[in-house]
Amino acid sequence: MSETLVDIESIRAQFPILQREVNGKPLIYFDNGATSQKPQSVINAINHYYEYENSNIHRGVHTLSQEATSAYEEVRKKVQKFINAEHDHEIIFTSGTTGGINLVASSFGENLIRKGDEILITAMEHHSNIVPWQMLCERKGAHLKVVPISKEGELDLEEYERLIGPKTELISLVHVSNSLGTINPIKKMIDIAHAQNIPVLIDGAQAIHHTPVDVQELDCDFYVFSAHKMYGPTGVGVLYGKEELLNDMAPYQGGGDMIKNVTFEKTIYNDLPHKFEAGTPNIAGGIGLGAAIDFINSIGYDFIIQHEAELSRFATSQLRDIKGLRFIGTAKERAGLVSFVLDGIHPYDTGVILDKLGLALRTGHHCTQPVMTFFEVPGTVRASFAVYNTKQEVARLVEGIDRVKRMF
Ligand code: PLP
Description:
Helix content: 40-55%
Bound molecules: pyridoxal-5'-phosphate
CATH architecture of the largest domain: 3-Layer(aba) Sandwich
Shape: globular
Structural class: alpha/beta
Radius of gyration: 22 Å
Strand order of the largest sheet: 4-10-9-8-7-5-6
Number of strands: 17
Distance between the termini: 37 Å
Strand content: 15-25%
CATH superfamily of the largest domain: Type I PLP-dependent aspartate aminotransferase-like (Major domain)
């Protein structure tokens, strides 16, 4: 226990924002599923770039441009190692998870999907993994099929297999649900899809900071995530894709950097990864992502998994006793979050009162409206944990909920 406390205190000390107060109370930040806080090392890496290296990349012969280019490209290699991709050019920098999914829906989907084809997703997807496919289906006259969930918030795997048919051309699955916390058995689901030669995209937005990801072991065709949910900056993310698929795909956007040669008659596109990275990217963000990976590596997934599971267990055991509280999402395999509703109290009101107590929680549909429809709730209250959260903070949440209940 004391060792854990020492570790947590030294981790917390790295996050300047955790020192601040909100409404006169020490900040307790439980909105990590929306975006995590940033350690000083990430802030320093971004500042260092702007203070010492600021320059556009890939085009300059001068020192600043070369330094910025190598700092940015080093991160690509770091990401490759982090998710164990075979090649660094399989790492495409994007604006985030949403950007990555839209890229695949446009560049891969546009070529692949024909009238009458089917794209399979699940009932627990974030809107980012629904709408791009829906738009593609509308453009092509294809159909979106949905794997249902149980009342515990688990996928029905029998139905998953049943829904895969001769017209299924693509499957897109969330690794960890942001509103239910469910960890899906993606390896098994990818194997089932591949037995029918169907490519699979994994939305790893809520997984990458909770669990190590090995894209070669998973054998997924695409894996997407955002830096800002893994202690990095906003506006940057990663699309991993298998080399042969990325090579066959048309560019997503046209512009600088994605070309080898341009004439008015014809443009020769650049090689991977630049083919998919038109225009000046978020250079500082990319460098910040590198520092975020260093931060996660410095702590190690063993600790992260054990600590977040402990917080989740503790929160569940404490909240369970509160009368009128119902958990939304009780799957056996869950990541570090709890999502719940209180009888007769709107999640929004709960969120506002908790904020007065310095507690930052997310309330609402969490960009998963179909999940809310399934559970027949307007929204939930969600506490999502990060490596700097503590049991004492969870205890404060329980007191806060008690206060909310007494006020209504
Ligand atoms: N997918 C999941 C599961 C998410 O939780 C989120 C964000 O909450 C997204 C996709 C979208 O991520 P971003 O807004 O960083 O693109």
